[in-house]
Amino acid sequence: MKIAIIGANGMAGSAIYKEALERGHEVTGFVRNKERAKEVLGDKTSLIIKDAFELEKEYLEKFEVVVNAFATDIEKAYLHVDLATKLVALFRETDSPRLFFILGAGSLLDENNERFVETLRKAPGSGNWIAVPDNQYKQLQFLLNVDNVNWVGVSPSATFSKGEKYPPVLGKDHLLTTADGKSHTTSGTMAVAILDEIENPTVIRDRFTVSD
Description:
By secondary structure, the chain is α/β, with parallel strands linked by helices. The protein has 7 helices and 10 strands. The strands form 2 sheets. An 8-stranded mixed sheet has the order 3-2-1-4-5-6-10-8, with helices on both faces. A two-stranded parallel ribbon has the order 7-9.
């Protein structure tokens, strides 16, 4: 399949890029920093150097799947919502490409059926970073009202960090915990789950979650 990854040099994007290549897909990374991307992905990487907000339909319509692995500074966390609205606007009333959004864990529900972002808000110093989970939740709220674009979202567990891949455990709207009693997802596990869903679609215009 032809797969585009926006933010291919980031933690999530690079893991997805490498997993897709391993599986024999034709992958192109959209990045702003060519040198940084080649350091992360290798010299033979297929890249298009373009800011995500400069992308137009002509750049993306040839792909079967577009994975949005965009990340930004905390003070501009609202760009998560802005980019989602841009991509949706480009592909209204179409089935292709399929838009894949990596969302945060904040929109998930905890063991008390409380929104996890509200639990995070109570953490000491959360004012310095809560904008990211807040805006990723807003991103999901926007997507859930989109019914004429082929999209899917995925949320990691409470802790999302760089790491090797494990067989993914999937869920719907609640935080998952692993055998160690913690809630975590590695970038490698996330990549496996995303490629599994790309190759064998089961979620349409909805969100799922993945855990190690």
